[in-house]
Amino acid sequence: MPADDADALYGLPLEEFVPERDALAKRLRDEKRRAEADDVKALRKPSVAAWAVNQAVRSQRKAARALWDAGDALVAAQDDLLAGRGDAAGLRAAADGERAALDALLEAARGLLTREGRDLGEGTIERVRETLHAAAIEPAARDDVAAGRATRERAHTGMGAFGAVSTPAPASRRTTPAPRPEERAEPAQKPAKKKAKRDDPKAREAERAAAAAEERKRAAAQERERAAAEERDRREAARARADAERELRDARRVLEKAQRAADRANERLDAARAAADEASAALADARTRERDAAEALDRAAKSG
């Protein structure tokens, strides 16, 4: 497939994708390059959100690279926290960095217009955000997005608001058979076994490690819940802002329409006033001519 020509298709306005793709495929067939023509013909038209992602990534290369770096840093911070090498503050800072990088790239998408000249809807913008977030923290979702050739939206499917988390599988439960009468320990021996376990340094270290691991898991879960709550608040704020911007645009359109109507009314009023002035002048002129004619008639009568 002619890579440059095919890649250029994803940078076109969305409504031009299919006709340009078909024209390219036809040209390749005319050149007897049927395999390449079939590959081009099979290219999928992007969804509106995927198209917006492509345009944002293609036009803001530096911001896109910053988002990929921030996504990698976020995944690393979460892995460090779960492994005991990091803390919640580091994870929170990485999450804030990824969110800031995503917002910077999202602004480019907000400036795109539909074929009808309208802004992208807030639902589309939200799908753009989800796709960019998934690409930032999931390597499998990044390739097409980073290349500006996404054809569909993506949604992060890992744990929480960050990267996918690998957790060890729980130990399998084994059923211990009931001891035979001759194997049963004397009740007096149990406290001694417990005491020996408490005195065993390895056992105490294992207990401390297990407690620390459990604490890290709880901290990570709390951090994910906090980030998810912040993300919900941010989305609600974004929707409220979009509603306010839409109302502002509608109000401006109504104002512009009213202003145009007022201008037309003023123009008609000015024309009416000019016509009235002309009519008044014509009336005065007619009265003067009438008076002159009457005086001439009187003089004629006297002289006759």
Binned, the helix content reads: over 70%
Mean pLDDT, nearest integer? Answer: 76
Biggest β-sheet: count, sense, barrel? none
Query: Which spans of ≥5 residues are poorly predicted at pLDDT below 50?
Result: 163-179, 181-188
Shape: elongated
The fraction of residues assigned to DSSP E strands is under 5%
Order of helices and strands: HHHHHHHHHH
> What oligomeric state is this?
single chain
- Radius of gyration from the CA trace? 39 Å
Task: Give descriptors for this structure.
elongated, mainly alpha, 304 residues, 74% helix, 10 helices, single chain
Structure, described:
Among the domains are: 3-41, no CATH class; 190-257. It is built from ten helices and no strands. It has helices at 3-9, 17-30, 34-41, 48-59, 61-83, 88-110, 122-137, 139-146, 189-199, 201-303. It is elongated and about 155 Å long.
Furnish the topology, listing elements before pairings.
Layout: H1 3-9, H2 17-30, H3 34-41, H4 48-59, H5 61-83, H6 88-110, H7 122-137, H8 139-146, H9 189-199, H10 201-303
In a nutshell, what does this entry contain?
The chain is an all-alpha fold and 304 residues long. The protein is 74% helix and 0% strand.
